[in-house]
Amino acid sequence: MKITRNRKRFVVPLNSMSDVAFLLLIFIMLVSLINYRREVKIEYPEAAVAEKTSLKNNLEIWVDRSGALYLDGDPSDILSIENSIIDTYQDTPDTRIHIIADRDTPFEYVNRVLQMLQLLQYRVVSFVVKDAQGQ
């Protein structure tokens, strides 16, 4: 008695491979466009003259209307901001600090940050404003 086996050849359908590759390409493009920068919703003050600074090596201190402080978008307090500035300065001394305050923020809240920077003798500080010409 002879035993015969039917060997079926399995074939992978290649018709949908281009669809899968296209969807994968779209997914990678969308993920690469995500902006990971956290921002606090504020209304920027205006300035007649504005100077653009580098986007690299920045530390952002946000001050909202109620005086709450944020360091790079994360809620923080004045002591932890001070410690972060000290640590950042030791790692990269050319770091620029951006103070971003709401247009309606009382100056006393911004002044707390400025006094802390003055005690640290930090000299590379910028105020972020909106250009009056709308640029």
Written overview of the protein:
The chain has a five-stranded mixed sheet with strand order 4-3-2-5-6, with helices on one face. Strands 1-7 form a two-stranded parallel ribbon. The model has no long low-confidence stretch (mean pLDDT 79). The protein is elongated and about 100 Å long. It is 32% helix and 19% strand. It has a domain at 46-131: Nucleotidyltransferase, domain 5, CATH 3.30.420. It has helices spanning 17-32, 78-91, 107-119, and strands spanning 46-47, 58-63, 69-71, 74-76, 96-101, 125-127, 130-131. The protein is α/β, with parallel strands linked by helices and 135 residues long.
Provide key terms for this protein:
single chain; 135 residues; alpha/beta; Nucleotidyltransferase, domain 5; two-stranded parallel sheet; 3 helices; 19% strand
Brief summary:
By secondary structure, this protein is an alpha/beta fold.
